[in-house]
């Protein structure tokens, strides 16, 4: 995980604490340094709201602009609560107000990392599902769409202007290509790939 | 004195009365002359009736009375001293006629000159916007008042009555500011001693209503005081909050280190083969653990104290109202100029005509702009007078208005860049280093941001944003 804070001692102490809890931690003294170094690694970002140069909020904006989905946990001093609220509104994962107990911090970090992991898993599945669907021919996709829409074999045949038998043939080809055994499995795959009936 | 009173008596003012009185007088003189058989030579006695007629009824009447007087005189002379001869009578008669006529012309001339003077005086003061009046300090009489006078003070009986309204006892109050207790307005009284038409020395007063400017002055003073108070409050608050922040950081670090240690210790003492008995000479990690936990509690407690200080300091929340950006900038530049004695701020504003109102605490935002303007000005001290120029811009982004204060100074020193906004960071002998820290706090109260950029052509630009007011 990543810590961005301009205070060297605070950054180092965070690294020690998080390290003791088993997190591997990289520290950056400024938002710019982090932006330059970050390569879409898994984890979460612990970010100080108030920093010279680029503030935490600006970094959040920059990350959003670049489409970087890393979850951000903001750390705020007391006076910065309105800014933290603003950060939450813009989609930050959570925020922590100083002073905090270590369990609070670790808990939030754990949840943020878990959320990142599950997002990555979903992303992975989606990509796999998409890749699998890529293997289908255009006609097979049409048949699949009809299937998803819940049409009967006859209705599908009528709509596509082919015989019911051909429809049946395509259907078994689809199941075979995607290595699906049941309809439910097929539907689940499509859901992951974000293919929905029109 | 009595002659003056006589001049103003009614038979001198009313033409008919004057003419009748003068005819009666002339007739009386003629009768007296006739009765005394011309022995007293009373020709010169006709002058008063002639004067009276001329003064009261004009030149023609004067000439008529003069002619009649000459005729009466000649008739008496002829009647009582017929042996003098015709030539002599004619000569004497002509002489008197000429003398009377000359007298009439002189008197008429004098009178018209006086009238002209009065007319000039009256027309000058009648058109005056301010109330004007003339007082005779001796008699307490109001000799003249212009139309504006009655509009301003209403019906006023005597000069003394008016003076009492101003809190003065004499009918002629002193020059200067005066408060009219009756209308509740402030006036500036201008007083001049002058000679009245008849030669009396009187006092002329002109009263200008200064209530509005007096009020504006008071308002400005009050605002300046409020601004000053807020500035001080913010400065104190900023100091305390900085102290709190500065303490919070190491405190936080201590707590983190400590908690890290506790965790490691727990893992170690909980690990197999790391039983307390195996520690060096009676060392029990659990004891250490207990102490470190106490340490953590104390660090947290200290953090809480600091937090309470900040809470106390930040009690005054900004009161946000929709404010016009242009008015904010103009007001702030005026205030900045007021604060920096003996400099004339050469500021150029580039403000679009239609900017939306921003949600701002006017007093606080003024503080921000004044600080930025002052910094800009101080940064340009080394430049020639005409080179020093501050450009203030504003522009609209959809939900924010961005303000820019651009100077032509030497720019921010590279080693200062990272801590510029921290309190007590200054390069100035007289500086407190609080200006920018205060600015940032205020801007962040407003949920805006403050930052700076270097101008390509030299100098620094400070930017800050304020949210657009929701309608
Ligand atoms: N426009 C500017 N150009 C160059 N340097 C600047 C400018 N504005 C600020 N600085 C630098 O930043 C420092 C901090 O500014 P800040 O306004 O916080 O404090 P200060 O002006 O020194 O003191 P004060 O408390 O009286 O405002 C300044 O001392 C100066 O070195
Ligand atoms: Mg300053």
Account of the protein in words:
- The complex is a heterodimer of chains A (198) and B (471).
- By secondary structure, chain A is α/β, with parallel strands linked by helices.
- Chain A has helices spanning 8-20, 31-37, 56-65, 81-89, 102-134, 138-148, 153-160, 164-178, 183-192, and strands at 2-4, 26-28, 45-48, 72-76, 94-97.
- In chain A, helix 6 (138-148) crosses helix 8 (164-178) and helix 7 (153-160) crosses helix 8 (164-178).
- The longest helix of chain A is centred in the middle third of the chain and has 33 residues, at 102-134.
- The model of chain A has no long low-confidence stretch (mean pLDDT 86).
- Chain B is of the alpha+beta class.
- Chain B has four domains: 2-126, no CATH class; 131-209; 242-316; 318-471, Histidine kinase-like ATPase, C-terminal domain (Heat Shock Protein 90, 2-Layer Sandwich), CATH 3.30.565.
- Helices cover 54% and strands 16% of the residues of chain B.
- Chain B has 13 helices and twelve strands.
- A five-stranded antiparallel β-sheet of chain B has the order 2-1-5-4-3, with helices on both faces. In chain B, strands 7-9-10-12-11 form a five-stranded mixed β-sheet. In chain B, strands 6-8 form a two-stranded antiparallel ribbon.
- In chain B, strand 4 and strand 5 form a beta hairpin.
- The mean pLDDT of chain B is 84.
- Chain A binds chain B through residues 6-7, 9-10, 12-14, 16-21, 52-53, 55, 57-58, 77-80, 82-83, 86, 98-99, 101-102, and chain B through 241, 244-245, 248-257, 259-264, 267, 296, 299-300, 303-304, 306-307, 310-311, 314, 417-422, 441, 444-445, 447, 449.
- The site of adenosine-5'-triphosphate has 22 residues of chain B, from helix 12 and helix 13.
